[in-house]
């Protein structure tokens, strides 16, 4: 079986889960060609991501003349005109018609390359423009397509992203959590519900062997892009409240983003610089090292799908303090594997951090072990890739 994956920008530091999924499929003997619209090479720090970038065909590198020619050739056929009408309709719902004409040209190039490569099925990650290009490529005579929806972006603008139309035309749609599937069911026709499947993102258990839980003052780590939806600014406020009652608390912030300056200013204004370390982006080994050095992960997000970082922390046998949103409660069990707090509530988050700081190490260790058992049972990448492979096989048989 030869399939292709399609992502808008790939690889990226935050998309290691896609690389893991592809490699798990390849271990099953499935040949996977990587398509992405563009590269993020300058932002890559992990050698594995750099190597993945070299394996990926970046469609926009073909150049505007090649893409325009592919689009014009497509319009010489009846399929091309049907695809044009589809693109215009999607553009009018959201994103703009001109942008969707660019997607149509990209789709024509992807469809042509799929024919050249003998690709039997095209799978997109994210229900945004990558799924749009996959849908248009199929309309132009390319292979059948499917796509994985992560959220929260797709759930914020389902009509503008033409989710209903994409799910109706896709061979199947994948959600990464039960919560995600329920949100897709809100926007799909009831007749399409049986073709919406839950396949979790996964971790490679061997990479996250549990390290001994550190003794001493509580050290927590937060990992992710610095953006409004990730809630790190609220976390700084919560930490300022918490250290008044648990002065040994220390927070490590792994990541970077548009709010880096605001984060640094908030830490300085709160007077908690001695309690905070900002590391910037780290490669996978660096992330594992920070998890090993921490007693817990904290996730203060306002919106998520089902965060990979929670899976990784649990696989490393670390308790998790997280907000009660989206698919997170499907993994984090209050009192069993961590703490769940209302999103946006700095006081509740501070209370959870203080409770963590006051929990005996033996109890934290037991919570971490329970979390590891739970995530390995639900998110082993080889098991999840097997479920995805079965869906591909059914479509290409």
Automatic annotation (TrEMBL):
GO-annotated molecular function: glycosyltransferase activity
Listed Gene3D superfamilies: Glycogen Phosphorylase B
Record bears the keyword Transferase: yes
Top enzyme class: transferase
InterPro entries: Glycosyltransferase_grp1
Keywords assigned: Glycosyltransferase, Transferase
Source superkingdom: Bacteria
Species for this entry: Ruixingdingia sedimenti
Protein name: Glycosyltransferase
Enzyme Commission number, as recorded: 2.4.-.-
